[in-house]
Specification:
It is built from seven helices and six strands, in the order βββαβαααααββα. It is of the alpha+beta class. The longest helix has 19 residues.
Length: 229
């Protein structure tokens, strides 16, 4: 049974589109099936990067101002991107905002930007890939300012471009707009995390969906072991 957030408090310790020369292509652009897809989870509060048939599937609970989450990306971000890209791993990111002192603060704005990155946009429509999204996450967490000002719209656009995202997607991130109900997202992801571990609910938490267990990310080889198993 889901547990209401009001029942528990978290203490955070630190956190050539192909157009030929003589032929015009019309219709809606399709995602390249050879590239890992990017989508929103069925419940609406997670971001799924990778192929659905990937043998390993994990959830990452992460807070945009959590410096330990930044450490996870610094240490394992490249490996995550690689395994997503070769089809061995599907990652569902579940953002949380418990370090914000108000709704829609730093962490809420970053979380919304992550969901903006999943949207189709442009003419013809284009979409970011799962690998590009992972690179975007790495960039955003690498430029953390915990307790300070959130990244600006221009900074988020630049990070999206550096991650390899299409210009239209980067522009969509810059333009802003509401892509997710941040409070509902935080409440839902809090409850999911509570079900995983109602004692140590810190971030980052990495959860193996196949085995139904929390992974030991303090083991420097945890990701390789996951893939090999």
């Amino acid at each position: 049974m889901r547990i209401s957030r009001a029942m528990v408090m978290i203490t955070a310790a630190l956190l050539i589109t192909a157009v030929g020369c003589t032929k015009q292509v019309t219709g809606t652009a399709e995602s390249d099936p050879s590239k890992p897809p990017l989508s929103v989870s069925k419940d609406g509060y997670g971001i799924v990067a990778g192929f659905d048939n990937a043998p390993a599937k994990i959830e990452i609970y992460t807070e945009p101002q959590c410096n330990h989450c930044a450490d996870l990306q610094a240490d394992f971000g490249d490996q995550l991107a690689y395994y997503i890209g070769v089809g061995q791993l599907e990652v569902t990111y579940r953002p949380m905002t418990f370090l914000d002192d108000k709704t829609g603060g730093y962490s809420g704005q970053v979380s919304n930007a992550l969901f903006l990155a999943t949207e189709k946009t442009g003419t013809p429509e284009v979409k970011a890939t799962g690998t590009e999204f992972q690179r975007f996450v790495e960039g955003v967490w690498a430029h953390q300012r915990p307790g300070g000002d959130p990244p600006t719209a221009n900074e988020l656009q630049d990070m999206a471009k550096k991650a390899g995202m299409p210009d239209a997607v980067a522009q969509n991130i810059k333009a802003g707009g509401s892509a997710v109900n941040v409070k509902a997202m935080d409440d839902a992801n809090f409850e999911f995390l509570y079900e995983i571990d109602n004692v140590d609910m810190g971030t980052p938490t990495v959860y193996d969906l196949a085995k139904g267990e929390k992974l030991d990310i303090f083991d420097n080889d945890w990701l390789n072991k996951l893939i090999q198993s």
